[in-house]
Design a protein that fits this description.
Layout: H1 3-34, H2 39-52, H3 56-66, H4 69-96, H5 98-130, H6 133-162, H7 167-189, H8 192-198, H9 214-222, H10 225-243, H11 248-256, H12 260-286, H13 292-316, H14 320-349, H15 358-390, H16 394-419, H17 429-435
Helix pairs in contact: 1-2, 1-4, 1-5, 1-6, 1-7, 1-11, 1-12, 2-5, 2-15, 3-5, 4-5, 4-7, 6-12, 6-17, 10-14, 10-15, 10-16, 11-12, 12-14, 13-14, 13-16, 15-16
Length: 436
């Protein structure tokens, strides 16, 4: 696969990232602050979108059967765009007709989850099928970086356009974004898969032994101590990583008085920081500065430190501009953590007892990530609502939740130091080979 083809697939990943910014960041702030709804409602909707994504295996199976992954990616982007538009329409409907608005929100967030799964899973399968071994790690990093870029650029751009806020402007922006992302995705995929199938390169087939059932394969991987502990690590660390997602914008609005556009830009600063963190670590690994283990633990610890500082800022009512800087640093810390966990995951997937179970390991870890994210976004919003009934200080309420996430990051750093052996071979050779 040429690097231009990988870039084209990365553009689709960028569009997926751009499409979820408003539903997962801006709308939950509108529900909590402007509509004065319990945070649990927004948390449940975001958790629903993750729960629906547990059907990713079905979308992957369909793309395998048809051997036409592009059609499922295009279908997924269409569903994702429709879901995003309907989610925006649900906001004014909730304000005027609560019951109907909530029903529409439930339906639209389900569509968003289906769309992300239907578009994202065949896309990664297409990338895995036609990229060479020396390309896989670096290609995965490129596409992930482009997804973060889509989140960041869209968050900041929408934040600028959205002020002063109105329901009509929200729906217009969401509709335009859906149209643009679908057009870019379609053009990026046009004749791409057909040209790859007709190329001289023979795609790799790393299938598990047909005599081994799906359940038996999972049991064998679970018996591996390293894989089992890493699954627990992913569950705890990704839970900490996701707890702040549904409450950061409402926190900025309720404690610091941020307008809708300002809080949306805050999320954009976080994503830009994440992008810088990932790029920095990729460059460090390419120059043999540190290891995945080092940066993974460092990312966990600095993410915990950032959350401690955010909690302190809320209690001291510091100048709002400082929050932007701290959230930007938090994004960089998250980027360091993300780069570390991606590299470690690719490395550990090829270790163990053999029998070509890399796909099974990645599947188990992907399921752990999905469950952790789903539970974390709901738990954090539920905790905000429960503590709000027990305490009068809103900054203290959010501070406790942020400190809880920080403690999970610290526990993850300790667990990561135990799981990943110091004498493990450096896993960045594929990246170095692909660059050279």
């Amino acid at each position: 696969m040429s690097w231009f083809s990988i870039f084209r697939l990365g553009l689709v990943q960028l569009c997926i990232g751009s499409s979820v910014v408003i539903p997962l960041s801006t709308l939950n702030r509108l529900m909590k602050v402007e509509l004065a709804l319990p945070a649990t409602i927004a948390g449940f909707l975001i958790a629903l979108h993750y729960a629906v994504q547990l059907t990713r295996v079905n979308w992957g199976h369909l793309s395998d059967k048809t051997q036409n992954r592009s059609q499922w990616i295009i279908f997924g982007m269409l569903i994702l765009g429709i879901g995003g538009i309907l989610a925006s329409v649900s906001i004014p409907l909730i304000e005027s007709r609560f019951g109907q608005g909530i029903m529409l929100a439930l339906f639209s967030y389900s569509l968003i989850g289906f769309g992300v799964g239907a578009a994202g899973t065949p896309l990664l399968a297409l990338l895995a099928s036609y990229s060479s071994k020396s390309q896989k790690g670096f290609a995965a990093s490129i596409t992930f970086l482009m997804m973060i870029l889509g989140l960041a650029v869209t968050g900041i751009t929408v934040g600028i356009i959205l002020d002063p806020y109105s329901h009509q402007k929200l729906i217009q922006i969401t509709s335009s974004l859906a149209m643009i992302t679908n057009i870019i995705s379609f053009m990026s995929l046009l004749n791409l898969e057909k040209s790859l199938q007709n190329s001289s390169y023979d795609p790799e087939t790393e299938a598990i032994n047909s005599n081994v059932s799906f359940i038996e394969g999972i049991k064998k991987v679970w018996m591996e101590r390293e894989a089992r502990l890493f699954t627990i690590f992913i569950f705890i660390s990704m839970g900490a990583f996701s707890m702040q997602d549904p409450i950061l914008e409402p926190f900025a609005g309720e404690v610091f008085g941020f307008a809708v556009g300002q809080s949306t830009k805050l999320d954009g600063f976080h994503k830009i920081g994440t992008l810088i963190g990932i790029i920095s670590i990729v460059l460090c690994l390419a120059n043999r500065l540190g290891s995945e283990r080092l940066w993974l633990i460092t990312g966990c610890l600095f993410s915990a430190l950032s959350l401690f500082i955010i909690s302190f800022l809320g209690l001291t009512f510091t100048e709002p501009g400082i929050l932007n800087s701290v959230v930007f640093f938090f994004g960089i810390s998250n980027g360091v953590f993300t780069a570390g966990i991606l590299g470690t995951m690719l490395h550990l997937a090829s270790r163990g007892s053999g029998d070509n179970k890399e796909g099974t390991r990645m599947g188990i870890w992907g399921a752990a990530q999905a469950y952790a994210t789903m539970m974390a976004v709901f738990f954090s919003t539920l905790l905000v609502d429960i503590l709000s009934l027990m305490m009068n200080s809103i900054p203290s309420v959010y501070g406790i939740v942020f400190l809880t996430a920080a403690s999970f990051f610290i526990a993850s750093a300790y667990l990561g130091s135990i799981i990943i052996k110091k004498d493990a071979p450096e896993p960045n050779q594929n990246i170095l080979q692909s660059v050279s």
